[in-house]
Amino acid sequence: MDNRVYTFDTTLRDGEQVPGCQLNTVEKIQVAKALEELGVDIIESGFPVSSPGDFNSVVEISKAVTWPVICALTRAVEKDIDVAAEALKYAKHKRIHTGIGTSDSHIRYKFNSNREEILERAVRAVKYARKYVDDVEFYAEDAGRTDNEYLARVVEAVIKAGATVVNIPDTTGYCLPEEYGAKIKYLCEHVDGIDKAILSTHCHNDLGMATANTMAGLLNGARQCEVTINGVGERAGNTALEEIVMILKSHHDIDLQTNINTRKIYPVSRMVSSLMNMPVQANKAIVGRNAFAHSSGIHQDGVIKNISTYEIIDPKEIGLDGNAIVLTARSGHAALRTRLEALGIAMSGEKLDALYQEFLKLADKKKEINDDDLLVLAGSERADNHHIKLDFLQVTSGVGIHPVASIGLDIAGEKFEAAATGNGPVDAAINALKKIISRAMVLKEFTIQNITKGSNDVGKVHMQVECDGRVYYGFSANTDIVAASVEAYIDCINKFQN
Ligand code: KIV
Ligand code: ZN
């Protein structure tokens, strides 16, 4: 069996389904180009029939990306397949990813159908997609909970119908690694014509087993893994690309290779986290802030004597360069541009000039500007199009006094002011804001990302605000944490006021 593992990245489809983490087309192109440089083989770029925005993103990514296969998702429905084929018109290498639920639960409750009918629909969809493209991937949704004998019949039938790749999703993240590995092995051993297609893993992390299940699938014969950067995805997320790639790279006993340039992993991880406003947990494997930080005395002693005592990966292998240039107020345009390029952000001309001015303002407030700060600055222009902007904010708070805030908003050019008290400075400021924006809004989540580099650091605020039964996500970063909180709240409001 071939030892090449194809990396299928679904950050822009399954990963992007996370509420509040949606990207616009320009941001998606930025991520797609970074994935191309990373060496991803297949980029799943959207579900075109789901919205005009998704359709347009698939079109634009198809134009922007050169060598990876561009894939579009569909249901086993002719209309979906027609729309996907149209969206993929400009792709140099294209794939339609069609499928249907195969577990008894999906067949009965989702489709009110039976196994034979579902099998026929699967075959029809694959044949229909093959009229448009040579590369058709079939997914058996909820394969993790599908009876193996029936699954093997479906897989055999879709391969006969022309599927080139067959995806075995553990949609609910339920499988144990032994069970998932055995499922792939069963298919390899019981499906006639299995050599004509590639089996793919697609694991969700609901029980924290997505990486283990993907590895079990690969070790038992799957040769494509469906993954996302930082493991982003609905609920507990999908299998993280960086984990699978670095497992395969560090375990020399496993003879499986990917095409990933691992030195690009860290910059792509930061870019996706920043664009999606989704912080990477500090102890996240491979790309978390603490992934290479040895703090216990025993570990530090060992690492000083010989790095291999406690470190299984050289951080440089994932692009984490301990000697990375730290920018200061004395750094010039060229240094800024070089650092942005290292982070996967190409900027020049007026845009770079404008960012440089923002950079100088921040460098005046804090001495050293790190990569996280740069990513925040590079993303801050998204707030320029806001309908509602923060004009001014004044807060008085302290020990033994009642916090008071006065706020000024610019709403489409018109100025509004209000003042209020609260049980703390943020509460006072938000109460004042609510006097101007009088809609029923409930703050559902409020996270201030750790400030680890000194009291002058930028604080990052993530918020979720509910309005009319829907939850909206907002983000801001500022050296003033109260201002960052109010700006994040305003970021949420701008989303439902649009
Ligand atoms: O998890 C899943 O089953 C999916 C399919 C649509 C491929 O994302
Ligand atoms: Zn999925």
Structure description:
With 498 residues, this protein is an alpha/beta fold. It has four domains: 6-275, TIM Barrel, CATH 3.20.20; 292-321, no CATH class; 323-384; 386-497, Alpha-isopropylmalate synthase LeuA, regulatory domain (Double Stranded RNA Binding Domain, 2-Layer Sandwich). 39% of the residues lie in helices and 19% in strands. It is built from 16 helices and 14 strands. It has helices at residues 25-38, 52-64, 78-87, 104-110, 115-130, 148-161, 177-190, 210-219, 241-250, 265-275, 297-305, 333-342, 349-365, 371-379, 425-436, 481-497, and strands spanning 6-9, 42-46, 69-73, 94-101, 136-141, 165-170, 198-203, 224-227, 388-396, 404-411, 414-421, 441-449, 459-467, 470-478. The protein has an eight-stranded parallel barrel, surrounded by eight helices. A three-stranded antiparallel β-sheet has the order 9-10-11. Strand 3, helix 3 (78-87) and strand 4 (94-101) form a beta-alpha-beta unit. Helix 1 packs antiparallel against helix 10 (265-275). The termini are far apart. Bound molecules: 3-methyl-2-oxobutanoic acid and zinc ion. The site of 3-methyl-2-oxobutanoic acid has 8 residues, from strand 5 and strand 6.
